Amino acid sequence: MAAAFVGGALLGAVFGELLKAVSEEKDKAVTFKDRLEQLESTLRNSIPWIEEIEKLNQVLDRPKQETENLVRMMEQVEQLVRKCSKVKWNCFKRYVYAKKIIKLDTSISDFFRTSLPLQHARDGKLIMVEVKEIHTMVRRMSGNGNINGWMSNQVGDCCSAPDPPVISPGLDVPLKELKMELFKDGRQFIVVSAPGGYGKTTLVQRLCKDDQVQGKFKDDIFYVTVSKNPNVKAIVQKVLHHKGYPVPEFQTDEAAINDLERFFKQMRIEAILLVLDDVWPGSESLLQKLGFQLPDYKILVTSRSEFPQFGSVHYLKPLTYEAARTLFLHSANLQDGNSYIPDENIVSKILRACKGCPLALKVVGGSLCGKHEVFWQRMVKECSRGESVFQSKNDILDCLGSSLDVLNNEVKECYLDLCSFPEDQRIPITALIDMWMELYELVDDVFAITNLHELSSQNLVDRVVTRKTAGDYGCYNDDFVMQHDLLRELTICRSKSEPINQRKRLVVEISGNNFPKWWMDQKQHPNNASLLSISTDETFSSNWPDMQGPEVKVVVLNIRTKKYVLPDFLQKMDELKVLIVTNYGFSPAELNNFRVLSALSKLKKIRLEHVSLPNSLATVRMNHLQKVSLVMCNVGQVFRNSTFRISDAFPNLLEMDIDYCNDLIELPDGLCDIVSMEKLRITNCHRLSALPEGI
């Protein structure tokens, strides 16, 4: 027995019973099976530390009460683990049990952190490593076992409001007014309305971080970005996951809405704030369905539309001259305190052209940072031309377009490539590096990073770093950029400025199975794009018509369905060098038809995110592939398949990245036979227990 193994003393005996409970319940509580197996593994690895504590108790005569507290907490954890198999589908009870386990686990963590004497600090730190792993796994176990922790890895705190920009002048008064509206009784909906780029998102982010707002709503502030094509099921899943509530697979939007309403009612939360950012026209039915009849339940909406039927509308005005001047000069002087700042007359002309729009001020200011006076004068002329980038009379977009023209050609082309990714989504820097290295024949990824820094310094992208060590040792797995939706519109418009068959980048967004008309007319006019991006929604059936793309070098597929078939026309794209497939749905997508890639002699890099690799991959041969990146993928099934040898599938692989693949237990057979391999990077795969001897 485990209890005898660890010495038979009180602490060891209780620990043994806990280990026994986990071992027995893992096969009964099917929903928690993976997580209980992980917990069992970690507990077994912790046996030497329990023995060490027993020895320390004898040598140091630790106070009896401290050990008894730890024993009592372990007994309570055991009881809760025993109940896991009895919970079945009662989601509310699972949530309650999860909260109790997390609380007890935290108490155990506190014991290890505070009770060990200073002279044994090293031992204490080692114990804490194991306890943190248990803490993490208990949290994962309490959620939905079917998603393998993906949502936590993908978006961190799913519905936590992002931190607002450090500098946001001119918003103090609007913030005060908006807060007064929020605290008024009897108003459920508040709509913050303004044109794109006026700071609506920044204002509500500041509101969510306000001390008084947090004091009222506490941990029940849910921040969700809705965007042009709202995915109701995904919105609800994020809210439930954010609170640690089990996340089911909803069949319909109505089922998702109903489950969210039940959750709010069962939790009896005193006050709820649901923030819906970037809501587009046509989303009235969504807002209406979310308007549950609950006490002190507020819904805050940001939109370019007003939605007057929902009551209070808060209009965000342009910045005053002084606030605009502060933001502009900060942006123009951001990188270098000695940057050239011209006379007030030139500044005044640019401010008038920007119309008090914060986004325009930041972008135009960033484009002039450190530039000679001649660039400032050119910007004044560009902003006053009266010619519109969007073929409209919008002067603000005119200024934004002028800022792009300041960039050198390669950096500008890199920026326009960002439209290949969906609106309001984080773009992995590693994906951009793979694209740009091949599209622009860069000899080293440092040039791609340089281009990215140039875009960031111009305020054309926002860098998002999810770990402090992002970028260390050339690893950018936790480094992303985001693009304002107005700037994305600008890049799409620039990309569409030429006829279909002459465009450098072809961006296609498909709703359902409705393909654009030009797609069917390609036999006479094949496209000559070098970058092809196709986005499909959750209703897409993977019934592909043919496409001719003889010059395509990079394909970006943005998907949302549970099952997805790679299009057959890929096998005819002889110039294809990079394939990027990203699933933005909640559950991993089953990806099939890899055989179409076997004949592509120039395909060098594949990046897959949040997909499940099929067993049929064992029959695929990609002799020219040089790099594979697997992010948040289900790889265990194919890696454990006895017929799959990675040295046969990718015999000339140079580089392999595996990140957040939670079912990775061991590396695939044949890995050590790939003599060409130069880099193997494995990060955040916490179930990986051993490396092959041949490595």
UniProtKB/TrEMBL annotation:
Which GO MF terms are attached to this record? ADP binding
Q: Which SUPFAM superfamilies match?
A: P-loop containing nucleoside triphosphate hydrolases (SSF52540), RNI-like (SSF52047)
Q: Which Pfam families match?
A: NB-ARC, RPW8
**Which keywords accompany this UniProt record?**
Plant defense, Repeat, Signal
Asked if the Swiss-Prot or TrEMBL record annotates the protein with the keyword Ubl conjugation, the reply is no
- What are its GO biological-process terms? defense response
Give the superkingdom in one word. Answer: Eukaryota
Q: Which residues form the signal peptide?
A: 1-16
RPW8 domain boundaries? 1-150
Give yes or no: UniProt keyword Repeat: yes
Q: Which PANTHER family has this protein been placed in?
A: PLANT BROAD-SPECTRUM MILDEW RESISTANCE PROTEIN RPW8, RPW8 DOMAIN-CONTAINING PROTEIN
Family, per entry? Belongs to the disease resistance NB-LRR family.
What is the designated name of this protein?
RPW8 domain-containing protein
Source organism of this protein record: Citrus sinensis
